[in-house]
Amino acid sequence: MSQVISPKDAAAALTDYWSPRVVGEVDDSYIKVAKVLGTFGWHSHEDEDEMFLILSGQLRIEMEAGAVELAEGEMFVVPRGVRHNPMAAQECCVMLIERKSTLHTGNVVTARTRSLAEQLGSA
Fold first, then answer.
1. What is the b/e burial string over 42-73, where b = at least 16 CB atoms within 10 angstroms of the residue's CB?
2. Cα(116)–Cα(21) distance, rounded to whole angstroms?
3. What was the pLDDT predicted at 123?
4. Cα-Cα end-to-end distance for the chain
5. Sequence-distant (≥ 6) Cβ neighbours of residue 79 within 8 angstroms
6. Rounded mean pLDDT of 10-19?
């Protein structure tokens, strides 16, 4: 059964940076929230797009062709296959929409990699 949630409050309540939590799902996509600070690391998702919506703070997404700066309320879709590196100079809360098949750190495994079980809160 569905329930009303506040993505902004759910993200703000997280205690670990760069550790997204699934807060909903739509068809074949998860809706995730995360609290971020610092640099995530370069990666790509070969077969999936990734949508970032800024709930609070600011986020910079570096890409090989340039960078975008996102403020609260703004969103950006990183197209599939594009190497990107999200970073936040100050604490930022984001909502992500991505296919259920999307791996957290894409084509690389790092200390920031979180399993789907961790993102679902069942680990």
1. bbbbeebbbebbbbbbbbebbbeeeeeebeee
2. 9
3. 47
4. 22
5. 49
6. 93
How many other CB atoms are there within 10 angstroms of residue 39's CB atom? 15
This prediction's pTM: 0.85
- Do residues 105 and 112 lie in contact, with contact meaning Cβ atoms separated by under 8 Å? yes
Distance between CA atoms of residues 2 and 6, nearest Å: 13
Contacts of residue 109, defined as CB under 8 A and 6 or more positions apart, other chains included, come to none
Contact (CB, 8 A) for 53 and 11: no
Residue 59 CA to residue 74 CA, distance in Å, equals 10
Tens-place pLDDT, residues 69-101: 999 999 999 999 999 999 999 999 999 998 887
What does the alpha-carbon distance between residue 74 and residue 88 come to, in Å, rounded to a whole number?
14
Question: What pLDDT, on a 0 to 100 scale, did the predictor assign at position 120?
Answer: 63
Residue pair 20/114 in contact (Cβ under 8 Å)? The answer is yes
